[in-house]
From TrEMBL:
It is a multi-pass membrane protein. Pfam families: Connexin. This is Gap junction protein. It is found in: Cell junction, Gap junction; Cell membrane. The chain crosses the membrane at residues 21-39, 77-97, 118-143, 178-203. Residues 42-75 form the Connexin N-terminal domain. The keyword Transmembrane applies. Belongs to the connexin family. GO terms for cellular component: connexin complex. The gene is Gjb7.
Length: 219
């Protein structure tokens, strides 16, 4: 899978972000995207082939694997990365709209099309809320699908066509557990950064509006 588009998107968003937003971009790019491409993808690459049960009943291994791993961890992580980065497109599109509007009217309509104010501020806040919400949704999804943030060494399966309760073994459970904890930790860090940036922007522009009103009253 090519991640060039996501990398370019994050690089483009970085130009219009606040300081906290740039830290978020760095965390997503270095601690999530690069870790996924360089290491995590290979660990889950042959997870189905390396899933073994102590019986050779045709179909038993497949149904047990599907029961305990309804969605691959790594594919769900990839989907999470794509989904939490997509709201940033709203900001990029809004800046592009401002720039095209200036070209159409052939005059300077904004001090800086990429400055977070006015309508762009609302778009930026919406993107932060969406990113935070998606992060939380995926963490809950991980927890529900896999019955907690854990990778067991042994699972017991009694689903047909298995003739009785069979023991199935997951390959490299400790290694997978480490990466799962890393996934949860980086996702939680991104939630904290998004909420911090959201609070910072709301506080900053609330103070700005208050000072404007105070100046008008004095005049």
């Amino acid at each position: 899978m090519s991640w060039a588009f996501l990398r370019d998107l994050l690089s483009g968003v970085n130009k219009y972000s606040t300081g906290i937003g740039r830290i978020w971009v760095a965390v997503v790019f270095i601690f999530r995207l690069l870790v996924y491409v360089a290491a995590a993808e290979n660990i889950w690459k042959h997870e189905h082939d390396e899933f073994e049960c102590n019986i050779k009943q045709p179909g038993c291994e497949n149904v047990c694997f599907d029961h305990f791993f309804p969605v691959s961890h790594i594919r769900l992580w990839a989907l999470q990365l794509i989904m939490v980065s997509t709201p940033s497109l709203l900001v990029v599109f809004h800046v592009a709209y401002r720039e095209n509007r200036e070209k159409r009217h052939n005059q300077k309509l904004y001090r800086n099309p990429g400055k977070i104010d006015g309508g762009l501020l609302c778009t930026y806040l919406i993107s932060l809320i969406l990113k935070t919400g998606l992060e939380i949704v995926f963490l809950v999804l991980f927890y529900k699908l896999y019955d907690g943030f854990k990778i067991p060494r042994l699972v017991k399966c009694d689903i047909k066509p298995c003739p009785n309760t069979v023991d199935c073994y997951i390959s490299k459970p400790t290694e997978k557990m480490i990466f799962l904890y890393f996934l949860v930790a980086t996702s939680s860090l991104c939630i904290i950064l998004n909420l911090s940036e959201l609070s910072y922007l709301i506080f900053k522009y609330s103070i700005k509006c208050y000072l404007k009103r105070h100046m008008k009253k004095q005049q």
